[in-house]
Every structure is written in structure tokens, then in C-alpha cells.
Design a protein that fits this description.
Blueprint: E1 6-8, E2 11-15, H1 21-30, E3 35-37, E4 44-48, H2 52-62, E5 71-73, H3 89-98, E6 103-108, H4 115-118, E7 123-127, H5 132-141, E8 145-146, H6 161-168, E9 174-177, E10 188-191, E11 198-201, H7 207-211, E12 218-219, H8 238-243, E13 257-262, H9 270-289, E14 294-298, H10 307-311, E15 315-318, H11 325-340, E16 346-350, H12 358-368, E17 371-374
Parallel strand pairs: 2-9, 3-9, 5-7, 6-10, 11-12, 13-16, 13-17, 14-15, 14-16
Antiparallel strand pairs: 1-2, 3-4, 4-8, 5-8, 6-7, 10-11
Helix pairs in contact: 1-5
The chain binds threonylcarbamoyladenylate and magnesium ion.
Magnesium ion (MG) binds next to loops.
Length: 375
């Protein structure tokens, strides 16, 4: 969605190309305000990460449950000692390989990091975003920025400034408009305080890549990996929820209810694609027959199968190409949001299979879905 510079109610829209914009945004943050800014993943809702009152404002702007901690964004590894008590050897290897980039590290927090940021945990999540506007803003502020995704709690994450206005217009002090984000799903969160280290949230950096540096990385759902322990606690279940409190909340949801149609194994082949589109058509026709307004979040490969559905009134849009999961990651929230803007009752969404970004895509879709069916 295109946005014009100027004021939307009380929200200042600052085009990032304006040479004054970064300085003005930094001043707002240093005065305890909130500024939404682009990263390579999604837009963040930024505030001074060392100012407890500013961080509290972030929670209230988002309507975020206070027990869900926030990621601190830094401009480079040199800022790590300001937020982390100790930086283990493995962290150095990961930072060298993947920062700036969509990898968030959970480390032991340093005293002075407000409890508001960590929701009272002894750990802090830190990342260095790979986006020139984000980096310039952090440098201009000179302090770590606390920044969750810039959406109302539980909703789809924003991938452009128009999305942020839709979510937080009139609630956030300013938006730095740096155009659409490239990756489209959030960073991968890795806990380095557990043994072995564990993925707490799959994201834009696939586990296969992280394992090149960290071979014993634990990913929930993987077979054969040894579950990490801290004082003998299992990762999954209650202990896992306590370690990453955000995981227990519903997330990434449009207003319409979502039915996720999982892809069977080998969905890259014609068979799998025929099966999933047949299932989507059956569900969508049933819903249309009940007089509901129906959307379909499809893929490039299945689009031709849905011409009949469009003729019957369904709104069909493609998230991207199955053969290139990065296009689906980039199009995921954008497609769901654009379908949601049409005031639909139900969105039937196709699942994907495969490793790599497939894990993050299915994680987000499963959290958005009220119902999951197999194809
Ligand atoms: O790509 C991203 O990570 C985006 C951009 C803006 O940087 N940010 C983002 O933040 O997705 P948010 O707040 O929407 O998600 C942060 C996740 C939540 O699942 C939260 O529970 C987890 O990180 N988290 C934060 N601090 C943590 C900690 N100390 N221990 C475990 N999990 C933590
Ligand atoms: Mg979020």
C-alpha cells in the first residue's frame, strides 16, 4: 500500500530517503517515543531499549501481553557487551557468519537491561538487522532499540509502511517509510543459553544454514536430535513455553478465520499439487455454498486450478512460487493482509512442505489457522 508523507492522525510518516528523517526519528526515540522502522524481515516498533518507560509504551501501543519479551536491535557485535553478560564462543561464530541478518540470539542478559524488555527473564534476545535504515537509526540513537513487529498483538506482521498505519496509525509516534521489506517473515530465534542450543522460533534463516556453524542445534519436530536442557528441563511443553513466552500466544492472524490445507509429502510433484488444489476447491466450494465470502491463498503452481472458484466468487491470490520458498515467505503476510482487506469470512490457505524456509512458513500458517486439514 502506498503512503503519502505527512501526518496520519498523530502519526508522523517520515520517508527514509529524506536526509532529516533518521535524525528526527532518533530524537523521538531518545525522548521516550516510539518509531516504526523497516528491517529486512518485517517492520519493527522501536523504542529506546534501555528506557523502561519507553519499552512499556511499546507494550501498550501493541496491546502486547507483558510476559512476552522483546528483541533488542543493535548495530553490530560491538554493542553486545552493553546488553549481554557473557558472549559464548559459539555466538562469535554465528555473529561472524550471519550478522547483520535475520538471526536473533538469546543470551544471558546484562544488569541494566530493563525487566520490561526481558519480561523478567534472565536472558535477552538480540539481533543486528540487515537493513540500512534500521542500522542508521540504531547508530543515530546510539543505544539498542527494543522492537517487536509493528502490529497489534496477535495480528499479521507488517511488511510495508501502509501495513503499519493499518495496524498502529495514531498509536505510534512516527513511521520511517523505507518501502517493502525483502524477506517477509521474522528472524529465527536461537537460544544459546540451553544445551544444546535450540531454535525457539523458526524464521527467515533456515536451521540447515545455522547448523553449518552450530551442528548440534536443536529444532523442535526434528527426529533424533537431543532435546536441550537447563537444569534437566525438557525443551518442549511447559519449560519451552517458559523459555520463550511468545510461543504460547496465537499469532500472525488475519481477521478472517483461516483454514490451512497441509500439503502431503512430495508436493513439488504434479500429484501433490493436484491433491492440495482438489482439497482447497472442495473446502472453498462448501463454504461458498453456505453463502460465506471466501478467499484462497494459493501458489503460482496451483493458480490455474482455481479459475472455477474465482468464477463462483472466491477471491484468489498467490503467495509465491512453491519452487522458490523465499517468494512465499516474502508474500505470505502481504497476501493474507490483502485478502483480509476484502472483508472475507474465511481464507483457505495452502501449506507447503520441505525444509529451509518451509519450517518458518508452516509455523506462521499453523499459528494463524483456526483449523488444519490434510490434503
Ligand atoms: O524479525 C524479527 O525478529 C522482527 C523484527 C522487527 O526484528 N521482530 C520480531 O519481534 O519478530 P517479536 O516481538 O514480534 O518477536 C520476538 C520473539 C517472540 O517470540 C519472543 O517471545 C521471543 O522473540 N523472545 C524475545 N526475548 C526473548 C528471550 N529473552 N528469551 C526467549 N525468547 C525471547
Ligand atoms: Mg511479532
Amino acid at each position: 500500500m502506498e503512503v503519502l508523507p505527512g501526518r496520519v492522525r498523530e502519526t508522523l510518516v517520515l520517508p527514509a530517503s529524506d536526509p532529516e528523517a533518521i535524525r528526527r526519528a532518533a530524537d523521538i526515540i531518545l525522548a521516550g517515543g516510539t518509531v516504526a522502522f523497516p528491517t529486512e524481515t518485517v517492520y519493527g516498533l522501536g523504542a529506546d531499549g534501555l528506557n523502561p518507560l519507553a519499552v512499556r509504551r511499546v507494550f501498550s501501543v501493541k496491546g502486547r501481553p507483558p510476559d512476552n519479551p522483546i528483541i533488542l536491535h543493535i548495530s553490530g557485535p560491538e554493542m553486545l557487551p552493553a546488553v549481554a553478560r557473557e558472549v559464548p564462543e559459539v555466538a562469535h561464530g554465528l555473529v561472524k557468519e550471519f550478522w547483520p541478518g535475520p538471526l536473533t540470539l538469546v543470551l544471558r542478559k546484562r544488569e541494566g537491561v530493563p525487566d520490561e524488555v526481558t519480561a523478567g527473564l534472565e536472558t535477552v534476545a538480540v539481533r543486528c538487522p540487515d537493513h540500512p535504515v534500521a542500522l542508521a537509526l540504531i547508530r543515530a540513537v546510539g543505544r539498542p532499540l527494543a522492537a517487536p513487529s509493528a502490529n497489534r498483538s496477535g495480528r499479521l506482521s507488517p511488511t510495508d509502511a501502509g501495513d503499519v498505519i493499518e495496524e498502529l496509525g495514531g498509536r505510534v509516534d512516527a513511521i520511517l517509510d523505507g518501502g517493502p521489506t525483502v524477506l517477509g517473515v521474522e528472524s529465527t530465534v536461537v537460544d544459546l543459553t540451553s544445551s544444546p542450543p535450540a531454535v525457539l522460533r523458526p524464521g527467515a534463516l533456515p536451521p540447515e544454514e545455522i547448523r553449518r556453524v552450530l551442528p548440534d542445534l536443536f529444532v523442535a519436530g526434528d527426529r533424533g536430535g537431543q532435546a536441550p536442557s537447563r537444569e534437566g528441563a525438557a525443551h518442549e511443553g511447559a519449560a519451552g513455553a517458559a523459555r520463550s513466552p511468545g510461543l504460547k500466544y496465537g499469532h500472525y492472524a488475519p481477521r478472517a478465520s483461516v483454514i490451512l490445507v497441509r500439503a502431503g509429502g512430495g508436493d513439488g510433484g504434479d500429484d501433490g499439487i493436484a491433491r492440495i488444489s482438489a482439497k482447497v476447491i472442495a473446502r472453498a466450494e462448501g463454504l461458498l455454498g453456505r453463502g460465506l465470502r471466501v478467499g484462497v491463498a494459493a501458489t503460482d503452481e496451483t493458480l490455474p486450478a482455481y479459475r472455477g472458484l474465482s468464477d463462483k466468487g472466491a477471491v484468489v491470490a498467490s503467495m509465491g512460487e512453491r519452487a522458490a520458498l523465499e517468494t512465499i515467505a516474502a508474500g505470505l503476510y502481504r497476501t493474507l493482509r490483502s485478502l483480509d482487506r476484502q472483508g472475507l469470512d474465511v481464507i483457505v490457505v495452502e501449506g507447503v512442505t520441505g525444509g529451509g524456509l518451509g519450517l518458518a512458513i508452516m509455523d506462521r500458517l499453523a499459528r494463524a489457522a483456526g483449523e488444519v486439514v490434510e490434503s
